[in-house]
Amino acid sequence: MTEELSNYLPTSNVLQAKPPKDVDAIRIAAAWLDAFASSIATLDIPGITDLFLSEESWWRDILVLTWDFRTFKGSTKIGQFLSDRLPLTSPTNFELRPELTNFQQPFPDLAWVQLMFDFETDVGLGFGIARLVPTSSGEWKAHVVFTNLEELKGHPEKTGPLRNFSPDHGQWETSRLAEKDFRNGDPTVLIVGGGHSGLDIAARLKVAGISALIIEKNEKIGDNWGNRYEALCLHDPVWYDHLPYFPFPPTWPVYTPAKKLAGWLQNYAEALELNVWTSSQVMKATQDDAGKWHVTVRKADGQDRVFVVNHLIFATGIGGGPNGGNLPKYPGMDKFEGKFLHSLQHRKAADHAGKKVVVIGSCTSAHDISEDYYRHGVDITMFQRSSTYIMTVQNGWKVLFGGLYSETAPPTHIGDRLNASFPHYMSIGLGQRQVKAIAELDKDLLEGLHKVGFRTSTGVQGTGFALLAWSRAGGYYLDTGASQLIADGKIKLKNDSQISHFTETGIKFENGSELPADVVIFATGLGDSRDHIRSICGEDILNRCKPVWGLDAEGELNGCWRDLGLKGLWYMIGNLALARFHSKHVALQIKALEEGVFGTRYSATA
């Protein structure tokens, strides 16, 4: 993502209009939705686009009208999208949700009426969000519309009143073991990886009536968190991190320790009766001419079983290779007499008591590990290669997610849809303002970092961590305490020159300086997520796959939760919030394919 993107916002100065003092949000929303629905019913494309803010408007659709993840900017592209898709999907029965409709003013010069509505298409139930802004003519026009597929008609999730009501007297354990072993046939879906992404999609498929099996190489579900470094803790708040169908209890801490999360994931798999084989590994997978996947699984007892499945889902996380991150290459590494570790291999600071430790990197893992060493009295230096976006969690989350995910925010499923309703590129102007507000709240900390020479950035085009996360899954640290330790000199900092080479006893830099080290930990990223596909499916399959992660020209994530380039091949990825929301989208696509109601994908051309 190299080109400069627009930071347009429909402010009162730009629109030459301010909202009236008393805004009747429900009346305005109802009138707009009536006109919107009437124009859609008659396929009046100019009538629909006239309800939008010309070329500075946006429509984001997830599956319901496109069977893909698409974002259209401007009335011209929106009009073409509607011309192509409305005759095929037949949206109808639009109904306003007045209880979720209100007037909002996030900044003194920026205001909108936000409305939510339900509708249906030929095969599905949809949910929509629109934000209307005042114009100089007195009309309220849409700046953003978001539409999302919620359910397939005739195929509701088996939850609530559709759960199993039949008493079971003595047969549950036997039937459950048979289900987990797949003694009588193969699953429809095989999932590689039993982390939160794998569990989420398995849970979604189960309530959709699709049989699935998770293959997890670790001894227990949750080990992918529990076996990480001792100090690992989530930097996202609990309200943002709930799993589908089984939210964290109200006693849960706001920031979850990794080992606590590990236990929760194990309980989650058991409580939701997800089919999991642990201490097992997918050895290889091939696709036949009919598109089915032949997957060889080595079980815990060393025996191989070949499954033939319709869908193969990689839920192996961000980062490449079955063995974790690779170490960067520097001259002299073969001469270094100390120890090299990647951050994935680090376990606990006490392992290196009395040693001089250098952490290479300055993002989340580097900060967490450095803080852990300091807390254990170990001599620790962070080597910062490039600037880092810093945001404290106590200030940043209030500004970014206070109205979406908090103790008093709307329910999580509404927060997810609100969050998704801000297209990534449309949000640049908002993000820039939010970053400035956060920086003002974090002013003392940032000044302390600058005094010791720590280089901070404001992210891509001043948008903080958001576009950094979407484009490269790195470049930031959401501060939970390590930044103050750097500002206080308790975690030492080296960043005045780049590495030249390693010596027997440490690191030599281009400016001639040296840094002694007994242990060097590389917190330098995790590589290409598709390396997992390479290791299991081979180079030919990999070369036919689309990229995974990073934003495309429309601001949608590449390859995640959508068409990966081959029939029945999927990639589940993302933090707990993204996996929670988008696992539903993967399950809906698989269910639609299995039921024969999947339409044609309306995908962007390269």
Strand fraction equals 15-25%
- Per CATH, the architecture of the largest domain is 3-Layer(bba) Sandwich
Q: What is the rounded distance between the termini? A: 15 Å
Question: What shape does the CA trace take?
Answer: globular
Name the assembly state: single chain
CATH class of the largest domain: Alpha Beta
- Which parts are unreliable, with pLDDT below 50 for 5 consecutive residues or more? none
Count of domain modules: 3
Please bin the fraction of helical residues. Answer: 25-40%
Given helix and strand content, the structural type is alpha/beta
CATH homologous superfamily title of the largest domain: FAD/NAD(P)-binding domain
Average predicted confidence as pLDDT? 95
Q: Describe the main β-sheet briefly.
A: 7 strands, mixed
CATH fold call of the largest domain: FAD/NAD(P)-binding domain
Strand count: 26
Integer-rounded radius of gyration: 26 Å
Enumerate how many helices there are, as a single number. Answer: 18
